[in-house]
């Protein structure tokens, strides 16, 4: 149990430290909002696709496509989207805020956090 806890802490804490550092640097004015917008665009359009491509090309031959897992993920994201579309209008009345909240909730940054967690847990592909 102790080893599992230490493993979890070593996996998650570096991510929280980086997020906290970004928040602190934004709060003290070292990083501006334009930096975050440009960084997000760069990460989603260049860095993340490049990293995923390189990881796939370097994957061991024993790694195989798992259609059931992909289907599970697609169904999960779709279910979250539908559920949010049903629940959010009860709490947020303005359409523009509602759409932004739903999109931010189901899309989030799970691609970035998920790949970072996977890398911290399992190392390079």
Task: State the gist of this model.
The chain is an all-alpha fold and 125 residues long. The protein has helices at residues 2-27, 33-57, 67-87, 95-107, 110-122.
Low-confidence spans: pLDDT under 50, at least 5 residues? Answer: none
Number of distinct helices: 5
Considering DSSP H and I runs of 4 or more, what fraction of the residues is helical?
over 70%
H and E string = HHHHH
Describe the main β-sheet briefly. none
Write up what this structure looks like.
The model has no long low-confidence stretch (mean pLDDT 84). The two termini are 27 Å apart. The protein has one domain. With 125 residues, the chain is mostly helical. The chain is 78% helix and 0% strand. The chain has helices at residues 2-27, 33-57, 67-87, 95-107, 110-122.
Task: Offer a few descriptive terms.
mainly alpha, 125 residues, 78% helix
Mind sketching the topology for me?
Layout: H1 2-27, H2 33-57, H3 67-87, H4 95-107, H5 110-122
